[in-house]
Structures are given as C-alpha cells and as structure tokens.
Amino acid sequence: MLQRAQLQDRAMGALMGVALGDALGMPAQTLTRSEILKHYGTITSFVPPYDDHPVSHGLGTAMVTDDTEQTLLLAQQIIAGPDRFDDALWADVLIRWERDVRARGLRDLLGPSSKAALEGLASGKPADQVGRSGTTNGAAMRIIPVGISTPPDDLAALVGRVTEACRLTHNTGEAIAAAAAVAVVVSLGVAGFGFDATLALALDAARLGNRQGAPVGEADMAGRIALALRIAEAGDEATLAREIGTSVASRCSVAAAFGVVRLAKGDPWQTALIAANIGDDTDTIGAIAVGMAGACAGFGAFPRDRVEQVVRANALDLGPLVDGLLQVRKRRERQTTKVVS
Fold first, then answer.
1. For residues 143 and 58, what is the distance between their CA atoms, to the nearest angstrom?
2. Which of 55, 60, 176, 178 registers the highest number of CB atoms within 10 A of its CB?
C-alpha cells in the first residue's frame, strides 16, 4: 500500500495534469493542425491565444478553460456529498458556473451535451432523461476527481460512480464508457500503477460503461481506445489525429487522449506538448491525457517551472481538494473492505 505522501503525489499529479494540459492546449482549441502552425508555429510553451480567438478570446497565457474549472467543481461536489450524487445540485452548479463565465466576458461556455441537458431540465424533463443524447467529451474531461476518490478494487462500484457523475449531461453508453476508462486509469494510477498497467482494467471499464445509460453513440469504446493505442505504438501524432480524430466526440478525443499518453511514453510534459499541437479539441485532449499521465507518473514528474506558471496564472490551490478527495477514497476503501469481509 502506498504511503500518504505517495498517494498525494499521484492525486496531485492527476489534478495538476488536468490544469497543465488544459492551459497548454487552450490557445489551439478548435484549430486545425495547419492553423496551429500558422498562428503559433509548434507550441513548445504556454502562449496566449491570438486576438479574437473564437473560443479562447479573453484568456491569458497559461490560463485554464472549462475543462479545469468544471473538474474542480466536480471535486468540490464529491467532497461535500460523497455518499450520493445530487443531480439537482450539480445542475445548479453548472448553471451558476456558466453565468459567471459570461460575467467575465469569456466565450468558453457549456458544451453542447451539457447545454442541451440543462435546457431539458429547465423545460421540466426528469434529470435521468435529459442527458440521453450526450456523447461528447464533457463527462470525460471532468471525471478525474471520481478516479482519485474511488479505489479500483470494485470495478462495478467505480463505474457506478462514473455513471452517477455522467447521468445529468452525458447519460449515454459512449460518454459513460469513455469517462469510465479515464477514471480507472486515474484510480489505478493513484494506487501506484504505471500507465500501461492500467489499460486492461480501463478497457474492461469501457465495456461495462457501454452498457450504462442510453444505447447511443459508439457501441465499442474499448475498441476505439485499443485502436488508438495500437496506432500510437506504431505511428505519430499526425497518424493518430487522422485515424482516430480529435473532435469533441468521445469516440474521437477521449480515444486520442489514450494514444497521446502512449506517444509520450507516459511523460506528463511531453503528453501536454503532443496534445497541444494535435488539432481541434486540444485543451480537452490535453486535460484528459495529462491528467491520466500525471496520475500514473506523479506530481514529481512535472517540470516545476511549468507548474508554477499555471498555478500563478489561475491562482490555483489544489492541495485542499487533493486532501478531500483522498479522504473520500479512504472512506470508500473501508466500505469496500467491510463488504468483502
């Protein structure tokens, strides 16, 4: 069993990975690979978005987007209510978050699945029905706190936690499967596993996740992830982007994130660099991929100067969230042990 300092190192690596990958990919989001080259050349460090960027306008160098902000909001919700996921409260959190984003004059608002779900909820539809068309990557981009706070010993329970967190906005087989695979990598990473050692259980989680929610979208998310991993083993980021895709669809960007970690051989900073230059949904691919890499490599594997830049730019204080999520994890470990015994 890992010592507390080691658990904290892995958990901090996961949360910091979300922020760092998000911030490095932020200026390139929605752009094609050729457009990234035109505006920035090859991204090798944090840069501001070009003037009047369609999504990132108003953000500065090393600043994070909705990916990180919603991840931290989900972490807060888990810590505040570890025994039951409150859909109504989560809806209110997301609505208030978007209102604040608008007040800040930013353009990076709720994604299409989350927006449609909240509109459905406002029109009177039940919370467990409004997300039954959401197949985009919004659930996977913010799922990492579920992986940190849930031990990997009971796969069904872990996928159940993922399903609860997805239910409101992304209650489909594709989205739940994608988020479940990411959460398992993080859960195992926090437990001390390297990236490659997490993959078999992550694919099992994707298969189980595909049977949850509405049978909408990609029916074999595990197959998509496995394909991305094979492509990454033999190819490069251009091939991965072309063959898998890097759009907001979970079947593309989440699978691509797994391939990016493999291309980078699990190194968090190299993972962030590949994600930032891969095209299209670069901030989300970065958030997911570097979050997984960080969980498996630990916070100590990050370049300290890059971390400090992201922390300063966003006034981040991740320590209390890491401690809170690990307390929830310990509580759930005791519950699992009690059930088994």
1. 26
2. 178
